[in-house]
Structure formats: structure tokens, C-alpha cells
Amino acid sequence: MASLKLLMILLFGLLHAIFFLPSPVVSSDKDEDNVLQGINSYRSSLRLPTLSKNENAGCLADKIADKLENQPCNGTGATSVQVNNYSGLLSKCNIKINSTTDGAVLPVCVRKLVPTLVLTNYTRTQYAKYLNDSRFTGVGLGSEDDWMVVVLSTNTSSGSFSGAVSLMSSVAFCHCLVSLLVGMLVYVLVY
């Protein structure tokens, strides 16, 4: 009987590890990861806090990069572009247009998205003032072809991009609740 209880506890532990612990997010786009790492190194050298990924800002960066994909790129870096249906992109990413006023959208165009050149276009152009601003705490990145888009967010109600923090809290709560229920089920079955 003791070995059955031990087996059930080990099985519970294994199931918990497989299904209920959050897995690390692995980005399929190394260009974006390299640029984020470079931006965070740059901010650290200025004694600014590193930027953490913001899911809604990432969504917006992806949507804008998708729109820019067919725009001509002369490979000059930081550029001003027009994006049609900007409010539609915001709503697709669950960003409330009326309450989100703090943020920055920074598109650059660099042939083949060479990471060092992309990073230089963020740290040595007019975009550097945004990266040097301690108000920005979150970031989303998106890329398509030769375009990289960085979207910066703040941790204020007007710049958090509509509750990315509360979304994470609800996900964590669900993980805890499911783990508790499975634990109770195993306890009832074993004892």
C-alpha cells in the first residue's frame, strides 16, 4: 500500500511538472530576441531598468510590421511611415484607444535585419530619446522582411497597453487553481 501511495505522489509530481508549470516562451524569431537583448544591454549601460516583454505591445508591433512588409525600404534605418487603420490594429491587440496615450512605436528598415545595424538605428538616431526614457518599462517587437518595429509601453494606466499585467495575473491564478484541484483529487484517491 505504501508503494502505491509513493507511486501516486510521484505520478502527481510528474503530471504537475508537465502540464501545470509555465514553460519558458521560446521566440522563433532570433532577430527580435537579439535586438531586445541589445536594447536591454544599452539601457543597462545607462543604469536604466531593462524592458520586459508586453504581450499587447508585441501584438501591435507584429501587426504594424505586417503592414509595413510591402512598403519600400531604402535601408536607411529609422523612418517615418504611415499605417492605415491604426485604430483597427489597436483593437485587434486589445489595446483601448481612448485610455492608452503613453507609448512609442519605433519602426526601422534595415536590409536583412542585421542585428547590429538595427540596434544602431535605435540607439544612435532620434529613437534613442525613447530608449533613454525611464518611463518606458515594457516592450513588444515585430519584424517582417527588412522591417523591425519596437513598441514601448509604460507601467501607468495610460501606457500599459490595456492590462497586460492583469492578464498575466489571471493566467497565474488559473495555474494555481488547477494545481490545487488536481492535488486535492490525488489526496482523496490516495487516502
From TrEMBL:
Q: Where does the record place the Uncharacterized GPI-anchored protein At5g19230-like domain?
A: 32-152
Give one Pfam family: At5g19230
Key words, A-Z: Membrane, Signal, Transmembrane, Transmembrane helix
The residue ranges crossing the membrane are 167-190
**Signal sequence coordinates:** 1-17
Q: What is this protein called?
A: Uncharacterized GPI-anchored protein At5g19230-like domain-containing protein
Q: Which organism is it from?
A: Manihot esculenta
